[in-house]
Design goal:
heterodimer, A: alpha/beta, 12 helices, 13 strands, globular, B: alpha/beta, eleven-stranded mixed sheet, two-stranded antiparallel sheet, 38% helix
């Protein structure tokens, strides 16, 4: 108990230092190295359960976002209330059309307070000037949610071209091509910086191998383009190799991103766990989501050393289907189950997950994106009925 | 595929064209030998000037020779040159040097489901036009602070306008209805934002063609579920690499799709997915279809349309025969069997004399 509270207090000391600057800022690298010496958990995949638990009830930040986010998260709240899950939601709205950053900073403070969040995707308005950064990106980098984990599994009731896919994708979430560092030195010529650092690459590789070991996986594949970006992806690959040598029970190999996408489309069963930088992670995770049935089925989780944020894997706003009761709630419901697992409320998580999977088996309840004609509310009602009758498929 | 944007090359003497041939590494040499065999058999009026590039040497002489030969002849057919990972980062990819020195700004890949090849998706017919010289492939990287690498992605207005112009022109010439620009402008606002803006400007000059745009992650997901919605796609370099490989996977694999690199004055033809195929080299199991179809694209470029369609018809007839499928298509055929079959097809179905072509 003392050890965990000591571990809890240390991050707070270093948080202000770690929150400053961008990757590549020497101060941050130093601070991270300093904290590394004292607190081994900087590289650890395990996250301490969050502190916001009073009277047995957890408080979780809820960010509705735009598009289908608000309606799906309402369903999540409805379901939690129905199942008597001991979670209270603190709703923080982020207005995507204003230029000030107050909303998103409020949200970030709320997540720092609670430790866990469930969010919908916040729209990035294209008509704003380029200095208006993507809110989702800002959230991820401020909270240092360095690992995006996505588990793509074929669901039994959903018909897809490929069967029995089971791939875990671990994507570096804070640097790479998403550094938002661009400039136009000469008019008509834009330079966009892709940053790869040794520290972040080691961290994500360690997370990947640790996760693979915990879940009993045999193989980790690093996806890169080091034949062209020799220094950048070369550094990433080298870090992965270094970490791999510390895990002799797990096989490590690497594959170039274009070959990977081609193999995924023809023979996805050869992949087990995949680790990669930010942009390739985006593309590969969307390909895998497409392979298992579409954006409405796969949940995603963003983990940092101190915080965790859960959302759908493919981060779609779904503006065109908002408020029409046709969106697929499965991804969001499964994301809330991941959140319950993170809060160590495993029983509730398994109950809800089982009910969702049982509902997915019924073809007449499938929503439009998986080829059916069901509505969102019908799916949620069915999940609630399954929970009530105790018919759970684990 | 019709490309009247580049003029026919000058190296034509006595009715015979001279084309540079770069064997490359892996399966390149054996497949290009088959191409030469086939051309000799069909009496195609093309002579090959072979320029070998040794991927292990660090000197630039080989590359410069090859580039000079292509400048001289105007057209080349190449295999992929291996990039040795053990050499220092200053040793830039040879394929990349070739593309940038000759300013081959447009990489065109036409992915079509071939009859006779069983795939999970039917009726895929997508033309991918990928910017070939800038973007993430600028090879400009540095490590200012140890452990922190910055890699530059360059997007310029001039090249984006050029590739967009090429894409719309090609769409118009091939009677295509729709061009989709693939980008990630929500994150890389200036870079891909500039690319998208250039595409929009060019689109305004082609009112009969519908223009839309899609973010790259959504594009790959749509490609995997509903590829039939795409017609012509234009994109910067890295997304082009990924998407062309996804599309190649959708129509049957790397052994089936040819690719062409066009510049203002030069054209280089190769397989679309640029694989070296080291593990299957010299085993007589590689699929020659991609390289053979690439040579047909080259013949079309040289305005030898009669020979091109004759060879293409024979290849398509061969691919329809399941017992001749090579290992990558799930069969047990060998490379030489496929090439022999193509030659037999030409012999039986092709014109009797070269005057009829």
């Amino acid at each position: 108990m003392a050890a965990s509270s000591a571990a809890l207090s240390l991050p707070k000391v270093f948080r202000p230092v770690l929150g400053l600057g961008r990757s590549g800022n020497p101060a941050k690298v130093w601070a991270a190295a300093a904290s590394c010496r004292r607190e081994k958990s900087t590289f650890v995949g395990r996250i301490i359960p969050p502190p916001a638990k009073y009277g047995g009830r957890h408080t979780v930040t809820l960010i509705p976002g735009d598009g289908i986010g608000p309606e799906l998260l309402n369903h999540v709240r409805e379901l939690f209330r129905f199942s008597c899950v001991p979670v209270d939601f603190e709703v923080v709205n982020v207005n995507s059309s204003v230029a000030t950053e107050d909303d998103i900073h409020n949200a970030i403070t709320a997540i720092r307070r609670n430790g866990v969040a469930l969010k919908g995707n916040i729209e990035t308005n294209h008509n704003m000037p380029p200095s208006h950064k993507s809110r989702n990106n800002l959230l991820r980098t401020s909270l240092d949610l360095f690992a995006n984990m996505m588990h793509c599994q074929s669901l039994p009731g959903v018909q897809t071209r490929h069967k029995n896919i089971d791939i875990i994708i671990i994507r570096e979430n804070t640097e790479g091509e998403y550094s938002s560092l661009e400039h136009e030195s000469v008019s008509g010529v834009v330079e966009s910086l892709k940053i790869i650092t040794r520290y972040n690459s080691l961290r994500i590789a360690d997370y990947a191998f640790r996760l693979a070991r915990e879940k009993g996986r045999r193989r980790v594949t690093a996806v890169h383009k080091a034949n062209i970006m020799k220094l950048a992806d070369g550094l990433f690959l080298q870090c992965c190799k270094e970490v791999a040598s510390g895990y002799p029970d797990i096989q490590f190999d690497s594959m170039i991103v274009d070959n990977t996408t081609m193999q995924l489309v023809s023979k996805p069963h050869q992949f087990d766990v995949m680790v990669m930088p930010n942009l390739y992670g985006n593309v590969v995770s969307n390909v895998c989501a497409g392979l298992v049935g579409g954006p409405g089925l796969v949940p995603g989780a963003n983990y940092g050393t101190n915080y965790a944020v859960f959302e759908t894997a493919t981060r779609n706003t779904g503006k065109s289907i908002a408020d029409k009761n046709i969106a697929n709630p499965t991804a969001m419901l499964l994301a809330s189950c991941l959140m319950l697992d993170h809060l160590r409320l495993h029983d509730y998580a398994n109950m809800i997950r089982g009910a969702v999977l049982t509902t997915m088996n019924e073809t007449r309840l499938h929503t439009a994106d998986i080829g059916g004609q069901g509505t969102t509310s019908e799916v949620v009602q069915s999940v609630m009925k399954n929970i009530q009758s105790g018919r759970c498929k684990n | 595929y019709n490309s009247s944007l580049t003029k026919p090359p000058p190296a034509k003497y006595g009715g015979r064209h001279t084309v540079t041939l770069i064997p490359g590494d892996g399966i390149g040499p054996e497949l290009l030998t088959h191409v030469r065999e086939l051309f000799r058999f069909c009496c195609v009026p093309v002579d090959f000037e072979i320029v070998s590039i040794d991927s292990k040497s660090t000197s630039d002489d080989d590359m410069n020779n090859a580039i000079t030969a292509i400048r001289r002849n105007g057209v080349a057919l190449k295999g992929n040159i291996e990039t040795n990972h053990n050499l220092p980062p200053s040793h830039i990819s040879r394929n990349n040097i070739l593309r940038t020195s000759l300013d081959l700004y447009a990489n065109v890949i036409h992915c079509q489901t071939l009859p006779g090849v069983r795939t999970r998706h039917r009726d895929v017919d997508i033309i991918i036009i990928r910017e070939n010289t800038e973007g993430e492939y600028s090879s400009l990287e540095h490590e200012n602070v140890p452990g922190v690498v910055e890699c530059l992605k360059i997007i310029t207005r001039k090249k984006s306008l050029r590739i967009a112009e090429y894409a719309f022109n090609a769409a118009r010439q091939n009677g295509r209805r729709r061009v989709t620009a693939v980008h990630k402008a929500n994150i890389m606002k200036l870079g891909d934002g500039l690319f998208l803006q250039c595409c929009k400007e060019v689109a305004a000059g082609y009112p009969e063609i519908t223009f839309d745009s899609m973010i790259v992650d959504n594009t790959t997901m749509q490609l995997v579920s509903k590829p039939q919605q795409f017609d012509v796609m234009v994109m910067p370099n890295l997304y082009g690499s990924v998407i062309s490989n996804v599309c190649a996977g959708l129509v049957g694999g790397p052994g089936l799709v040819p690719g062409a690199n066009y510049g203002k004055d030069y054209a280089v033809f190769e397989t679309a997915t640029r694989n070296t195929g080291k593990s299957i080299a010299n085993k007589n199991i590689a699929n020659p279809t991609a390289t053979l179809l690439a040579s047909c694209l080259m013949l079309d470029h040289l305005r030898l349309h009669g020979y091109a369609s004759m060879i293409r018809k024979a290849i398509l007839a061969t691919v329809s025969e399941t017992r001749l499928h090579t290992a990558d298509l799930g069969g047990q055929g060998t490379t030489s069997e496929v090439v022999q079959s193509v030659m037999r097809e030409i012999e039986s179905k092709g014109p009797r004399t070269s005057e009829q072509i």
